[in-house]
Every structure is written in structure tokens, then in C-alpha cells.
């Protein structure tokens, strides 16, 4: 049994304060996009994880999907499974690929073994694995706050636009990005800003990681500049980087950016 685990974009990201537990409170809007990993469960003699496709740094035994399965296996006495992960979502790109894989693994286990877990319970399991992991359980546009694991519905549909994603050959460490960021309270909440017309987002909806990440990786800033020059209505770095997305009124081809970067169209 397998499932397609999609990526997400951060339509804005405000880091509002440092928490006593070491995390940050934030505001963001998560938006699912059509870029997928494949997660598969196969009956096996022992539980393990095999990773194919894009290389993921570290040991497969430490993979977040395996961690997700093991906690469910303990609670529900599940039989051993081999987890096969076909990795296509770029790593270190601010797209939530690892969190998506784990969340869809939880949903896959729930379906395969007929656990009948409610959404809230699956979200609780996901929250144990990562701040944005719980988003992928329902996998719909939401305003996220607290650590990024509390949600409110938003009415947002970008399906009539052309969304393009540019991933440079740069890996931005989330931990490093957080070390250099400056927190501040926004003048207007992202919850309000996201309701503005798209052509008013520029200059109002921002990503607080951009200042520090652009200082270290100016090529990411250059990508954003080129996307606006190509006619984007709105462009922003997603998450802690390194990918930059752009929303266009009509489909485009960005041959110049394709020379040194991965470019994904029609997301």
C-alpha cells in the first residue's frame, strides 16, 4: 500500500517570539502544492526503512517515517513493515518534505490496519515528530500559529494561478536559519494579510527568514529578484529556504533560471 506525500509552501512567515522550550512562536499560512514523494508500506519480517530517489543526509534508521511507524507500532502492536520512501521533494528547501512523509505514513498506517484514528489523534502523533508535521494530516490551506502546529481554516484558492518553484543548489539548515533570525511582532497579523488581493501581498506578506538567509546565500535573493522581473505577482522564500516560489497570472517558462537551478512548474 502506498501514498503520495505532497510538499507545502509558506505563504508568509512571521517569527513573533522565542519560547522557553527553545521553539519559536510564529505565524504562517501553509498551502499544499503538487510536488510529491511516494511512501509505501510492505509486510516484512523486520521493520526498516529504504530510501530511494534524492539522497537524504544521515542514516535511514533515523528517518522520520520510521520514527512515525515505530510509535504507532508500540501503541497498537502492529506487525513489522518495510517502509519504502521514494524521495522527490528537494531536501533543505523549506517545503516540509520530511514532515509530509511522516504525516502521510501515519495516515497510511491508519488506513492499512484499520485503526480508525480520528484526525485529532493523528495530528497528536504528528506533533511529536515536527512542528509542521500535523498540517499534512488534513492537508488543506490553513493559518498556522504557536509552533506552527495549531491551525485555523483560511479561504484561499490559488488554482487559477501558475505557481512556480525554484530550488537552487543550496541546502539551508533549519537550525542554522533559526539561530540567525530576529523575532518581532508584526504590525498586522498574517491572518488578516492573507485575505488581501494577491496583487497587494508584495511588501506586506514577508518571510522573516529571508534577511539572514539572503545575507549568507545571495543567490537565493537573486532568484527572487529574477522571478519578479519575469512578471511574478508575488514571490517569497518558502520556510527557512532555500527554495523560492512565485505566483504568476499566466504560465511562464524560466529558461534562464533553469540553467543553474531546479525549476518546478504548475504547482
Question: What would your notes on this structure say?
Answer:
This protein is globular. The strands form two sheets. Strands 1, 2, 3, 4, 5 and 6 form a six-stranded mixed beta sheet that branches. It has a four-stranded antiparallel beta sheet with strand order 8-9-7-10, covered by helices on one side. 28% of the residues lie in helices and 29% in strands. The two termini are 25 Å apart. The chain has 267 residues and is α+β, with helices and mostly antiparallel strands. It catalyses: 4-CDP-2-C-methyl-D-erythritol + ATP = 4-CDP-2-C-methyl-D-erythritol 2-phosphate + ADP + H(+). Residues 207-251 form the GHMP kinase C-terminal domain. One of its GO terms (molecular function) is 4-(cytidine 5'-diphospho)-2-C-methyl-D-erythritol kinase activity. It holds the Pfam family GHMP_kinases_N.
Short description:
The protein is α+β, with helices and mostly antiparallel strands and 267 residues long.
Q: What's the topology here?
A:
Blueprint: E1 2-18, E2 24-43, E3 48-53, H1 64-76, E4 81-87, H2 97-112, H3 119-127, H4 135-138, E5 142-145, E6 150-153, E7 162-168, H5 174-180, H6 190-193, H7 210-216, H8 218-229, E8 234-237, E9 244-248, H9 255-258, E10 261-264
Parallel strand pairs: 3-4
Antiparallel strand pairs: 1-2, 2-4, 2-5, 5-6, 7-9, 7-10, 8-9
Distance between the termini: 25 Å
Low-confidence stretches: none
Biggest beta sheet summary? 6 strands, mixed
Helix content: 25-40%
Overall shape: it is globular
Radius of gyration: 18 Å
The ordered string of helix (H) and strand (E) elements is: EEEHEHHHEEEHHHHEEHE
Number of strands: 10
> What percentage of amino acids are in beta strands?
25-35%
Total helices: the number is 9
Judged by helices, strands and strand pairing, the structural class is alpha+beta
Calculate the mean pLDDT score and round it.
95
Amino acid at each position: 500500500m502506498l501514498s503520495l506525500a505532497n510538499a507545502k509552501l509558506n505563504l508568509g512567515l512571521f517569527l513573533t517570539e522565542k519560547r522557553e522550550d527553545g521553539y519559536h512562536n510564529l505565524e504562517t499560512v501553509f498551502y499544499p502544492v503538487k510536488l510529491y514523494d511516494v511512501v509505501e508500506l510492505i509486510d516484512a519480517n523486520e521493520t526498516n526503512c529504504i530510501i530511494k530517489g534524492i539522497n537524504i543526509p544521515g542514516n535511514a534508521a533515523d528517518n522520520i517515517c520510521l520514527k512515525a511507524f515505530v510509535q504507532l507500532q508500540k501503541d497498537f502492536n502492529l506487525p513489522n513493515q518495510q517502509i519504502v520512501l521514494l524521495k522527490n521533494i528537494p531536501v533543505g528547501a523549506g517545503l516540509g518534505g520530511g514532515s509530509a512523509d511522516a504525516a502521510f505514513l501515519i495516515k497510511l498506517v491508519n488506513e492499512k490496519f484499520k485503526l480508525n484514528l480520528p484526525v485529532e489523534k493523528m495530528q497528536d502523533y504528528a506533533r511529536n515528530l515536527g512542528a509542521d508535521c500535523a498540517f499534512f494530516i488534513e492537508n488543506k490551506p490553513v493559518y498556522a500559529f504557536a509552533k506552527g502546529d495549531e491551525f485555523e481554516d483560511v479561504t484561499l484558492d490559488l488554482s487559477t494561478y501558475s505557481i512556480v518553484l525554484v530550488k537552487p543548489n543550496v541546502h539551508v539548515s533549519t537550525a542554522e536559519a533559526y539561530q540567525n533570525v530576529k523575532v518581532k511582532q508584526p504590525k498586522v497579523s498574517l491572518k488578516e494579510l492573507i485575505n488581501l488581493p494577491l496583487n497587494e501581498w508584495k511588501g506586506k506578506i514577508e518571510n522573516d527568514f529571508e534577511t539572514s538567509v539572503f545575507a549568507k546565500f545571495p543567490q537565493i535573493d537573486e532568484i527572487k529578484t529574477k522571478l519578479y522581473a519575469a512578471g511574478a505577482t508575488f514571490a517569497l522564500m518558502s520556510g527557512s529556504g532555500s527554495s523560492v516560489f512565485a505566483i504568476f497570472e499566466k504560465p511562464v517558462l524560466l529558461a534562464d533560471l533553469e540553467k543553474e537551478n531546479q525549476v518546478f512548474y504548475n504547482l
